[in-house]
Here is the input.
Amino acid sequence: MEPTKGAKDVTAERLRQIEEEGYHCLHDDLNKPGEIARAALNYVVCAFTCQKLGVKETQVPPPYTNEAYTSLAWPWSFDSWKPGTVRRMYVKAAALLIAEIDRMDRAEEDSERIKEEERNDQR
Here is the structure.
């Protein structure tokens, strides 16, 4: 089965985040558990709100353009909050969720490796 346009766009967005923004695995691993997912959630909530309100694709409604509000929910600096069209925000959210899943997988692998090393040291 061929990947859908949505799946291709999410993959392309994740690669853009890595190559253009510098959000590679070492950068992602510096985040607290759930922090990247929290960013994804912000894009989902904003996109969903835009859909429900029927706003134009280019008009993100307050409070999502308000730095004070966004700073309570957005895990990083306000200048990294870049809402866009509804579809674009969903694509960004999905790519961020992939980053969070990959971060979790690496953390689990590291934990297992450390446990194995400790068992080997005890022998």
About this structure: The chain has one domain: 5-122. Residues 5-122 form one domain. The mean pLDDT is 88. The two ends are 49 Å apart (CA to CA).
